[in-house]
Amino acid sequence: MLRKIDHLAKKNKGLFYSRVLQQQTLKQQAQFSGIGLHSGNRVNMTFLPAGPNTGIRFRRVDLEGKPEIEARVDNVFETNRSTTLSKGNAKIHTVEHVLAALAGRGIDNAIVELDANEPPIADGSAREYVKMLQSAGLVVQAEKREPYYITAPIELQMGETVISIFPHDKLKITCTSADKKGRFTQFFSTEINPDTWEKELAHARTFCFYEEIEYLIKNGLIKGGSLENAVVIREDAILTTEPLRYKDEFVRHKILDILGDITLVGRPVIGHIMAVKPSHSSNCELARHILAQIRKPIVTAQTFTPPPSPKDAEILPAAKGSPMPALDVMQVMKMLPHRYPFLMVDKVISIEGDRIVALKNVSINEPYFQGHFPAHPIMPGVLQLEAIAQVAGILTLIRANNLGQLAYFMSAESVKWRKPVRPGDTIIIEVVLTKSRGKIGKAKGICRVDGETVSEADVTYMLVDP
């Protein structure tokens, strides 16, 4: 039966994403070594088979305990020039090319082992990863694949970027790319299946503009960069060690990035993505909105269920590593002593293990806008820092044996304010606990608006009895 399913999938690749019924993994492991784009360090990477419903996971074998990071948008840490995943103390940079290769070939379950903090960049495309998958081979698993069909349009605009997804019977990506000066404007559209992926997208290399190189070098982003693994555009000239692989190679690479970032939804997505000047920030934000649409029926169902009993409504300690439901503002106020006008958390979206995501709606009615500044209202950066500290406090307090205590903010390091926050913005506050010893805790916090980082800091706090 499984052989027949595999045969049908190969016979009709055009319907691959929507019609393959079973999950897939690798038959055997495959290895590749190379240089990391940003670190410039030697990296060894291994693709390994994984059991059904495992999903895609990155494993840092160079760190104690070999921690794993699930390829989920909830674990996205940063989207500046590439997509970075983080969980606890572990990070993986530039995951999008690997994810695109796995998604393009239709692999649902795999472990990606690395002995450094990013995959080897190879030639800047996904060509080497395709070779790895070809050598490893695929195997069909017994468990059912559950793609998500987009049920209603999702449309986002972030600066010059416009990205949308519409209901469609297959996965299709249409993209227009150009730089801020309108140079090298390119358009491409394709359905995604193993055949189109390998022929039309996998070989498209990453690229950058010459004037960006100084910024990238100063920020330590391309220590391993060279013309061997990227195409450089200088004015109207294209600097590369070989001719362009496609006449519209740049936009095809943008589609490659979109495919990799959308994989972070955690399951195959069926719909038509249309993007103009996409970025990793916009791609990941679209993934978040898709995930919200997936979860919406569950939320709606919960809305029409009978209200919980008082006992059910209590805040209970979470077992380490287990997901928790969101906390509304009433539950938040049971945990934090802060009140108007200093409560900086309106809702907790999710708590899982050492990671928490919360939300703060910024209203024009906030009292600090009377003086900061009347003609140009901007949320004070120190209050964003306070929001990070409060969310970190919730994460610490909700862990077993900490309920009923208070979390005192002690210090902040590596504080950065990147963009202004204005009335009408919704701040998503993500905090990861990095260290906990006795009564002292440390955490990394990031505030985002529309998927873009507006502030970040490392905070230290202490638990005390009230």
Fold topology:
Elements lengths: L1 H10 L4 H4 L2 E5 L3 E6 L6 E8 L6 E5 L7 E3 L5 E3 L5 E4 L2 E3 L3 H9 L5 E5 L12 H10 L1 E7 L3 E2 L4 E5 L2 E6 L5 E6 L8 E6 L2 H8 L5 E3 L3 H6 L12 E4 L2 E3 L9 H14 L6 E2 L1 E5 L3 H24 L19 E2 L4 H7 L11 E6 L2 E7 L19 H18 L7 E12 L8 E12 L2 E10 L2 E13 L2
Parallel strand pairs: 4-9, 11-19, 14-20, 16-17
Antiparallel strand pairs: 1-10, 2-3, 3-9, 4-5, 6-7, 7-8, 12-13, 13-20, 14-15, 17-18, 21-22, 22-23, 23-25, 24-27, 25-26, 26-27
Short description:
A hairpin with a 7-residue loop joins strand 4 and strand 5. This protein has helices at about 1-10, 15-20, 95-105, 125-135, 195-200, 215-220, 250-260, 280-305, 330-335, 380-400, and strands at about 20-25, 30-35, 40-50, 55-60, 70, 75-80, 85, 90, 110-115, 140-145, 150, 155-160, 160-165, 170-175, 185-190, 205-210, 230-235, 235-240, 270, 270-275, 325, 345-350, 355-360, 405-415, 425-435, 440-450, 450-465.
Structure report:
The protein is an alpha+beta fold. The chain folds into 3 domains: 2-144, Ribosomal Protein S5, domain 2; 148-300, lpxc deacetylase, domain 1 (2-Layer Sandwich), CATH 3.30.1700; 323-464, Thiol Ester Dehydrase, Chain A. The chain is 24% helix and 33% strand. It contains 10 helices and 27 strands. The chain has helices at residues 2-11, 16-19, 96-104, 127-136, 194-201, 213-218, 249-262, 280-303, 329-335, 381-398; strands spanning 22-26, 30-35, 42-49, 56-60, 68-70, 76-78, 84-87, 90-92, 110-114, 138-144, 148-149, 154-158, 161-166, 172-177, 186-191, 207-209, 231-234, 237-239, 269-270, 272-276, 323-324, 347-352, 355-361, 406-417, 426-437, 440-449, 452-464. The strands form 7 sheets. Strands 21-22-23-25-26-27-24 form a 7-stranded antiparallel β-sheet, covered by helices on one side. The chain has a 5-stranded mixed β-sheet with strand order 2-3-9-4-5, with helices on one face. It has a 5-stranded mixed β-sheet with strand order 12-13-20-14-15, with helices on one face. A hairpin with a 6-residue loop joins β2 and β3 (42-49). α3 packs across α7 and α7 (249-262) packs parallel to α8 (280-303).
